[in-house]
Every structure is written in structure tokens, then in C-alpha cells.
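Revision sheet: C-alpha cells.
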Amino acid sequence: MPLPVREGDKRSRRGVGTPGSDGILLRAAAEAFGRALIVLDGGDASLGAGEGALEDCAAALGASGCEAEAVIAALVRRQPAAGLALRALARSGAPCDLAADGPGGAVRASGRAVGGLALLTLWVEAAPPEPSARLAAFIEAHPYPAFVADAAGSPSLVNRAWLEAAGAESLDDARARGLTFDRAAFDLIGEALAAGAPRERVRWQGGSDARRALRLRSVPLGEGLAAVLSWDVTQAEGAADALGRQIAAQVAVLAETADAVAIFDADQRLDYCNPAFARLWDLDQAWLAERPSHAALLDRLRQARRLPEAADWSRFKADELARHSRLQATQEAIWRIGGERILKVVSLPHPAGGLIMLFSDITPEVRLKGQFNHLIQVQQATLDKLTDAVAVFGADARLKLHNEAFQTLWAIPPVMLGGGPTFDEVVERCTALLHDIHFWSELKGRITDPDPGVRAPARGDARIADGRRLAWQSRPLPDGATLVSFIDVTDTKALEGALRDREAALDAAEKLKRDFVSSVSHELRTPLTTILGYAELMEIGGEALSERARRWVAAVRSAAADLARSVEDILAFAEIDAGEMTLDLAETDVAALLDDAHGRWKARAIEAGVALHLSATDAQGTIRADAASLARVLDHLIDHALRQTAPGGRVLLSARRTADEVCLEVADTGRGIPFHVQAHIFDRFSGEEGAAAGLGLALVKALVELHGGWVALESEPGAGAAFACHLPVAGQVPDPAKLLI
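Predicted:
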């Protein structure tokens, strides 16, 4: 929109057009350079000097008159952006440079604030000089779009590639249709002309299917002209993008890598490091972001005592920095830090210049390797201490491991086994002692055949040439190898034969003993029964016997009863030893069991002057057991208690029940059992003085264990003894043949 002005005001309001030295000089300069000078004051515009130049501008723009406001109105019509620029010039003195093409030529305008005035200079721009023929030939020969244009972006010379890119037949056709190659090139021309130096820019053109990248370069040519050349850099830009993505991917990978990575540029400054690097050396990320030099990094690590101890620090530092100048592909070193950590340091030159360094903490690996080597040494030492001849063959049938006994057994020189000989080479020496070729062939198949069925564990024995007998076995190992062992069992086989003969003799002797005991016991039963019967008759019906004779008869009856009980015990032990005793398990009333035992021994206790008490209130209920066997157990314990208790003493028969067992207990106030006797009190024929035959307590232990229970003894010499029989309620009966009696 044109600036509003007042009619007829064609002179300066502030003395620009007044007579005087300054006004004369200003008009002379305007006329000399063909310029029209217009003064802008708020919304007014007036001609200050250069009436002829103003008329030329009016003719070029096709203005409706030659006044200042008419020329400005025509300028605004031809260049819409001029209205805003002129308003800003008039209000705030903002400089501007304008250009407009009219029917009579091109008009240029330049606005500046001078002192308190806003001045606008107008002139008709002369037609640009024609480019030289050489420039035209150069532009045409360029394979990509190229052109020459002025500051307004109007091309004056284009090549065929430019026309093809713009879709025009000729430059006049392009001007008429308003076609151009790339409007961004106009901005580049302005930048080059303003700077007076070449400017470059990369532009992407086309759709997603046929995009291409062009590098535009604008070169000032003088006289307000600039040449723009372009090159197709699609492949280069694509490669740069791919390189950028690859670098980003590498950075992402390095960020997750456990090994510490540092990259130094050509100036030996830290260009990149991953998080593992900062963690390894415990360095501040902010300090690392400042890109310290390699030398500064070494100095800081030395101050923190994180580098290997070096007697000559200067030499160590120089050697590390010399990695940048060495040309070999890879350099490796091992650093031991503080006696705790071991680092593997690898450096290699960067393809773009600089150095890549990798730091790997191999402390666990070194320790594991040391432990592995130690394990191998222990394994070898262990194998060498074995008497078995051991050899390990790999899946390729080569000897991997052997011990001294192996080479001694087959008389193989150590030098032959040192290089990992094949199975056939080893067998060639072994056949001198073991001629069975079929055995060796089958053994080789177990080593080399991958079929699990063939490689299954196997064992056997063989006789070698010197008469010895060997036991062998083969075992597949998890790594595909096979272990083969040989052991000399000559003496073992001879000993086994002797033991078998001895076992047979012992079995025969044991059978003879059992038969003898059984026969003798049965033979003794009949006379004992007779003796007991007549003794009882004589006691009952022998009124004519004297008191002494009565005592003799009582002694005979008692001795016969003891002997009968001993015979029964011997027979019971014979059955237990033979594994022939079986229990008749049934639900047995515990209280009734104790009451019957009390009734059987009450008279005997009275005769001995001992009080026999019964307490079964804590054991109400039943137990699954053999009642006869438990009655025998109680009889032996009560008999033992009465024998150990002096007249006036007391014997207590009791029982108590828990969740899963019943405990039968017989306690007395007798003389007690000496400590040295208690350890063997339940052994056969090791009873105390006064016991019947040394079998009663041993039989108690055997019968209780047959029920799945156990017997305990508590006794203090001079303070009595208490025998406790712990019996399972459910009647868990073990195998009689496995009892230790």
C-alpha cells in the first residue's frame, strides 16, 4: 500500500531543497549519479533532489504521474513487500533495499535513516551486461543445472540441464511461465552477493520415490551478478546418512558393551568413551565431556593410583602416548593394578585418524584359568596316585590323558605317550601283553562311534600273557571323550576264591552249630520237664520230708526252672540268628500285659522280701505287638530286678504312652549296675554276676528290636536301675536277619 502524501509539496520540509551550500551539493550529487532523493516524514513523501531521475523511474514503472507519491505508488504495485519496508523506514528508520520490474525497465530503491531524516533513493537500473562467451560455454557444459542471475533472482544465462529441471523450452519460456529451477537458490545468490564470497547449500528435491540431493554453490561474478552451479550428491548424502546411522548404532552398541572403550582423535584428545570406561576408572562424566587429552587422562589416573606401578613414570607415559604414532594394526598389553585387578589393554588405529583403546577386566578370567590349571594339576596328580591304569581318549581316538600306572602296566615309554598318540599306536604296544585283537577293535568302536548305544558304559575282564588277570571298564565322558581303566585283579580274584571257600565253611559251621543247639536244647527239655514235675510233686505231697529235704527240693526246682528258661532263651536266639523267628502281631492290651506279669512274679517277690508294685494308669489302650514276646521281655526284666534287689527293697513295674510309642519300664532300688558293666549289659553271656546264663538281657534287647523299638538303661551304682523298652504303637517290625544282637 503506497504512503499517503500531501498534494503539491515537491520540496523538502526541512531545508533540503532550500538555497545554501548543503542543498546545492545534494542536488548536484543526485543529478551527477542519476538518482532521485525522496524524503519520508511520517505519512508524507516529497522529492528532495533529482527530478530528471524521478521522471525516468516513473516512466520505467509506468506511474500515473511524475510526482514522488505516484512513483512510490507504482513501486508498491510492482513490489507488494515495498509498502511494509517503506512504512518501517519512515517510522523507525529501518534500512531497506528494494527492486521492481516495470514495463520500461528495472527500478532499484535504497532507504536509509540519515540524522533525523528517512531518505529513499530511486534509480533506473541499467540492463546487466551480457555474460562472456566463455562463461556461457562453461555454464552449458556443466552436467547439472547451472545459471547466472542478479540479486533479484532473475536468470540471464541458463544451461540445458536447468531448462530440463525447470520444465521449460527456453529462458524466455521460463520467464513467461514463471518457471524456475529451485527458488532456494535465489536466497543463496543474495547471501553470496551480500558476503562477496561463495556460499553453498545442500537441497533435497523430488518425492519419496525419486528424491535426489543437489549441492548448490553460488559464486559472485561482480556487477550484481552471481553464478549458481549444482551437483548431484544423492549417493554421497545417502552414504553420509548411512554413516551417521551406523555411527549411532555403534555408539548404542558400545554403550551396552561391558568392556571399556575410548576413542581419541588425531590431536590425541578424547573424542568418545562409553559408560563402562567411566565406571572402570571412576571418572566424572562432566570432566570426560571436556575432551581431555590422552596425556591429561594418564596424569589423572596416576594421581588416583589406578595405573600399574611404574619405576619410570615418564617412560611409561611416553610409551602409552606412542601408541598414536605406531602403525601396527593391534597393540596389546596387560596391566596389573594394585595387585587386585588385571586389565587387558588393546589399541588400534582409527580409520579416520586417531586411536581406539579397549580395556577388558580379565581378573575373573585369569583367576578361573588359574583355578582350571590348578584343577588339571590336581587331577593329574590324583590320577598318578591311583593304582588303576587310566587313559582318556578323545572322539578322534587320540590319547588326551593318562597316568603313570597306565604306562607302567603296558610298559610304554613316556616319550611315546607325550605327543598324544592315536589309539592304534597305543594298542600296537599293548598287544604284546593282551593278544586279543577283537577286544581292542571293540574298545576302539566304543571310543570313536558316535552312537550312544555303542558308547554305553561297559566292563569286563581279560587274562594277559604273563598270567595276570585284568578288570577293565570304559565310560563315556560329557565332552565326547572316553575313559578306559585297567586294574590288576589277580590277587583279588585269588582272595575272592579263598573267601568263598571260607564263607562256605562258615555257613556249614553255623548250620552245624544251630543244629547242635537245637538238638541239645530239645534233648534237654524232656529230662528238665521230668525234674521240674517230680520236684513240684515232692514239694506238694512230701509231708514226710524234713525241712532240710524241703529246701533241697526247692533248690532243685528253682535250678531246673532256671535251666529250662535258659534253654528256651538259647532256642530263641537260634531262631533269631537263623532269621526264622516271626512275631504274631495283634492288638495287645498294655495294662493287661503288665497285670499278668505282676501276677506271675508276685509270689516270687514275696519270697524274696521285695515289694513289687504296678503302675499302668499312663498306658491305657492297646499296642500292636506279640504278647508272648513282650511277656518274656517283662519276665526277664522283673527276674533281673528281683535278683539285684535286697530284701526290703522295691521293684516298680510301669508303662507310659506318647503319640506314637509305649514305654514299658521296670525299675528297682537294688544295688545298681557298675558303669563299666553298663556298656556291655545287653551283650550275650556278659550279664552281671548272678544272672542265669548271661542271655536274659540280650534276649530282651533282641525281642524289643524285633518289634521295631529300642531299650534304654539308667543306673547309678548303689541307687538301683531302670530298664525302659520303647515300642512303636503301630508295630513296625524290622527284618530279623538285619538285627545286630
